[in-house]
Specification:
The strands form three sheets. This protein has a seven-stranded mixed sheet. The protein has a four-stranded antiparallel sheet with strand order 9-10-13-12, with helices on one face. It is of the alpha/beta class. It is 42% helix and 16% strand.
Amino acid sequence: MNPPVSAALLHSRLAEFIRPDVRGMHAYAVQPSAGFVKLDAMENPHRLPEALRAELGQRLAAVALNRYPGARIDELRAALARHAGMPTGCALMLGNGSDELISLLAMACDVPPGEASQGRAATVLAPVPGFVMYEMSAKLQGLHFVGVPLTADFELDEEAMLAAVREHRPALTYLAYPNNPTANLWDDAVIERIVEAVAEHGGFVVMDEAYQPFASRSYLDRLMRHDHVLLMRTLSKFGLAGVRLGYLIGPAAIVAELDKVRPPYNVSVLNCEAALFALEHANEFAHQAALLRAERERLGAALREMPGATPFPSEANMVLVRVRDAAAAYEGLKSRGVLVKNVSNLHPMLANCLRLTVGLTEENDRMIAELKDCLS
């Protein structure tokens, strides 16, 4: 057994061989949730009916775990293309969740400064507050990240976005549709003007539709109006958060280039088979999404009647709510066995905001009752 490394030697080793920016980062935190009503991570709380679980178990048991993923992955791509209604002329790329796709996009667009037209590292641009992985993936890849604040009511600041696009000429511009954690859809006319502005310098726009099952609109029918827009979705909110499967749709020639940086076999045979099974039973997941949309409206109505709570409109499976003291409300809920997300420290615009995942009816009832008690 090797002797323990001294603290001084460990510090010296980290300082020499681990990037300073990585040492200065915080890892993505996942809250311990055992024993709680878990309403912090925008998961679909519904499980499959027992008969379908048994059928899925038989399917997974028959998978050849001793073999690398093969042609079945192509079948999954085709099934997802049919499910999404992928337009003609597009192609589809798979990722181990959307997180991997975001990382791969940063990797593919990391043109060395000497070769870039602006003579510096490529830029990733996104409205903030938004999904933290846009910024984290950009910085881990050595790219420049520009966050453009939303307006006070969490809408796109059109003037600021257009100015940032023209100044920074971003390689990647992310527009989450709906946004996380604010849960809203943005003005389509503003989005189109931003998309057109990005086209002027040749960058890419990524429409992130992670919460599409709960939204009233999609960008898919507008995708082929442009040759620089990519659409990203995930099966996590569909109901397979544990499977880790995301996909990217875009013009075939662009996707072919992006796919070159994807690791081989990045989707396991088990993930593949579970996703195929889910798509075969898409009606069940559509039913679950409908139940959650109805619960979202009920939760929003209850929050609007709650003294000291200001909920914001939602098109996702979460509701952002501002309270007088988010830290106290979060701890109060946690002490009562309900786990939500305190997002108030993610961005100044989210001061005293909690993000509440829409759960099962009984879970929402308990959250409503406990939050009302905390606020009183």
